[in-house]
Amino acid sequence: MKNKLKIFVISLIESTDRQNYIKNQLNNLNISYEIFNAVDGRKLSQNDKDELYNKDKAIKYTGNELTPGEIGCSLSHKAVYKKMIEEDIERAVILEDDIILRPDFNTIVPYFDNISLKGYVIKLERAYGSNKSEDNIKTTKFTLWHKKNINNDYFIGQPLFSPYLTWGYYIDKIAAKALYKSMPKVYLTADKWVYHRKYIKLRMLNKPIITDNYELFNSIIGENNNKTVMKNNIFLKFKLLFKYILLIFN
How far, in Å, CA of 185 to CA of 75, rounded? Predict the structure, then answer.
């Protein structure tokens, strides 16, 4: 694969088993990549958290505090965006380290090397982790506009309902810059696309070329027993719905 396009794999420095797993897949496909050292939110000092994370905003926007794992994950993705900005990297695919690359990965990803779209994030996995369907047309549905065909089997579309997950996605420098500037301190998870799509043009493939490997690797995001939840904040829910209706026309 000739490369304006960069492939980054976000991984904790000590997660050698995960790294070896994804390295083997990428090496077998003859794909160049860079392992990007992730931030371990569980090891951040309180001073670091105060400097890098805005707890009050997290609760205001989502009703929840972020867990240490979520803070680390968000900071890790943000750090990749910073690298793209500082090193003038025009486009990249960002992968997490516990995924399975489907056979069509090496067919579809080279398409992004010369893509003309600007300010885009294009998700490469299924819409939702809990829903195992490989048909994103059914699970998240797509708007009737903004469709771009790649080949007879794949197209890029605008999800009608905001997906989540950050297992793997394409991003260009303009989108990376917008997301980086949107949170001087992180307060949303990296996959909170329902909010992030305010700053970028969010698209996804009609079917995934990446899936999870939770049977082999457990999530390291973790839970926080002190998480604050505002399940009945009706105002927050309606505010989110209104913003979402406006954003799907982007």
Answer: 9
Residue 207 to residue 219: CA distance in whole angstroms = 23
Question: Closest Cα to residue 94, out of 1, 11, 16?
Answer: 11
Among candidate residues 221, 212, 109, 114, the one with its CA nearest the CA of residue 170: 109
Q: CA–CA distance from 192 to each of 16, 93, 217 (Å)? A: 27, 18, 22
pLDDT tens-digit profile of 79-120?
999 999 999 999 999 999 999 999 999 999 999 998 988 999
In the chain, where are the structural domains located? 5-247
Residue whose entry in the numeric block shows the structure tokens 């913003």:
243
Query: What SS3 class is residue 148?
Result: strand
Backbone phi, psi, residue 131, to 5°? -95, 115
How far does the chain reach from its first CA to its final CA, in angstroms? 31
Residue 20, SS3 per DSSP = helix
Domain covering 5-247: architecture: Alpha-Beta Complex (3.90)
